[in-house]
Write a structure and sequence with these properties.
Strand content: 15-25%
Structural class: alpha/beta
Shape: globular
Helix content: 25-40%
CATH topology: L-arginine/glycine Amidinotransferase, Chain A
CATH class: Alpha Beta
Number of helices: 10
Oligomer: single chain
Order of helices and strands: EHEEEHEHEEHEEEHEHEEHHEHEH
Mean pLDDT: 92
Low-confidence stretches: none
Radius of gyration: 18 Å
């Protein structure tokens, strides 16, 4: 059975970071910074490197791969939208709405995980052909996965659609809990991981963003049925990316909750205490990344649940 928490994450270090004009229409969180593209890029690099250091200091293994200069992928810093890695060795590739995000899918990155880091890949599950029909599902941005119980939570939007969602569920043997979620103005929230996260024993969600009462109750009930305590977030906290946190496991087995400084600052004392009791909190200021690209810490982390290759020398030493 797959565990909920990963101890290793993939991060893509950008080479030409900037706000992506092709995603602005559906992502109302982005495009809020001033300054030149060069200034945005330099600020993003400093924030990226600070997050890497903070995670490693807490015992998280961070595999950093550099983005490529060409083709230009302004959102490459968010790899969890194009790929997910699973405990049975399967790797899933996802259909992306913006054309300039589709070239983020890189088989060389998957090969590097196998060849240089000793991870075993049993199958590539390629959902990207759904793009031909105008249907999209942007990875663990579009879905928040309860990996232990095989439940995929998904708020529907132009980037999260039922056809590829059903395809994922069938091929990966997941139950789908789909719902509609909107911001204060009634506009669909573009990615599910902006409003919720599922940890090992704790979950967070901005429940007031779920548009329909029956769907809200169904989502909360399913989360609680899994045995998790649930922290409810407000719209103000949603806007501060408090829903975009990710729970991981350090090398000594302890839980690590990663989020941005803005997200942490938005939490009240009771919420912080619950998170602190659950695990070590890592909060890093990434204001430029959040404001420019409209994503936060969770978006920057693709969890690696792949098994280690038994033929890997480091793995043999353990045995």
């Amino acid at each position: 059975m797959e565990t909920q928490l990963a101890s290793t994450v993939l991060m893509i270090r950008p080479v030409r970071f900037e706000s992506n004009p092709m995603t602005a229409e559906s992502n109302r969180f982005q495009g809020k910074t001033e300054g030149s593209t060069e200034e945005q890029h330099e600020a993003a690099l400093k924030e990226f490197d600070s997050l890497v250091v903070a995670l490693r200091d807490k015992g998280i293994t961070v595999i950093v791969v550099d983005d490529t200069v060409e083709p230009h992928t302004p959102d490459s810093i968010f790899p969890n939208n194009w790929v997910s890695f699973h405990g049975d060795g399967r790797v899933v590739l996802y259909p992306m709405e913006a054309e300039n995000r589709r070239t983020e899918r890189r088989m060389d990155v998957i090969s590097e995980l196998n060849d240089e880091h000793g991870y075993a890949v049993s199958e590539i599950v390629d959902l990207s052909p759904h793009e031909l029909h105008g249907h999209y599902l942007e990875g663990t941005g579009s879905m928040v996965l309860d990996r232990v119980n095989h439940v995929a939570y998904a708020c529907l939007s132009s980037r999260t659609q039922l056809d590829p969602l059903g395809d994922f569920a069938q091929r990966m043997e997941y139950e789908v809990v789909a719902f509609e979620a909107v911001d204060r103005e009634g506009v669909p929230i573009y990615h599910t991981n902006v409003l919720m996260n599922i940890g090992e024993a704790l979950a967070v969600i901005c429940d007031e963003a779920i548009a329909r009462d029956d769907q809200r109750e169904a989502v909360l009930q399913r989360m609680r049925e899994s045995g998790r305590d649930v922290i409810l977030l407000s719209y103000d906290q949603l806007d501060a990316f408090a829903g975009n946190m990710l729970e991981l496991r350090g090398e000594d087995g302890h839980r690590v909750v990663a989020m941005s400084q803005q997200a942490f600052d938005s939490l009240n004392d009771e919420q912080r205490a619950a998170l602190d009791e659950n695990g070590d909190i890592v909060s890093v200021p990434i204001d430029n990344i959040e404001a420019s690209a409209g994503g936060s810490v969770r978006c920057m982390l693709a969890e690696i649940h792949l098994p280690k290759d038994a033929s890997d020398p480091d793995e043999k030493k353990k045995k």
